[in-house]
Amino acid sequence: MNISRYEALLVTYTLEIQRYLVKHGATVSDAQDIVQDVLVKLIQADIILSPDKLRPWLYRVALSRFYDLYRRKKRYQALLNEQFYLLYGNQEYVDESSAFLLHEAIKKLDDYQLALIVLYYEEDKSIKELSSIYQISEAKVKTDLYRVRQKLKREMEQADERN
Known about the structure:
Elements lengths: L2 H21 L4 H18 L5 H38 L7 H12 L3 H12 L4 H8 L3 H25 L1
Helix pairs in contact: 1-2, 1-3, 2-3, 4-7, 5-7, 6-7
C-alpha cells in the first residue's frame, strides 16, 4: 500500500470519527482536538497499522479521549458547584435544580470572568498571582471577583424566579 492511499484512508476515518463524536455530544472543536490527539498518538507510536486494524484502533483511542474529556468536564462542574455552594450556600447537599441554575449562570460568563473564578477558587491562585497573570491591579482583581460572584447570584435568582 502506498503512502498517499494510507493518508487518504486516515483522512476519511478521521472525518468519520469527528462526525461520530459530534453526533454523540462532543462540540465540534472538542471533536477536532480529539481527532488531532489521536493522529499525534498514531505518529508518536511509530506504527503503521494495516487498513483492517486502523479504523478500530482510531475509534478506540478517540472514544477513550472523548470519555476522558467528558469525565474531566463533569469533575470540573462538580468542583465548581462544590466551591460555589461552600461560599454561598451552607447546604449539606446540592440538589439538581440548583446545580442546573448554577450551570446556566456560568454559561453567561465571558471568558475572562470564568477564568477568574476558576483560577481563584479551583486553582487556589492568590489575588496577587491573578493581578500578575492579567497585568492589572490587585484592587481590580478583587472588584472583578466580587462582580462575577454578584452576577452569578443575580442570574441564579432570576432563573429561579422564572421557574
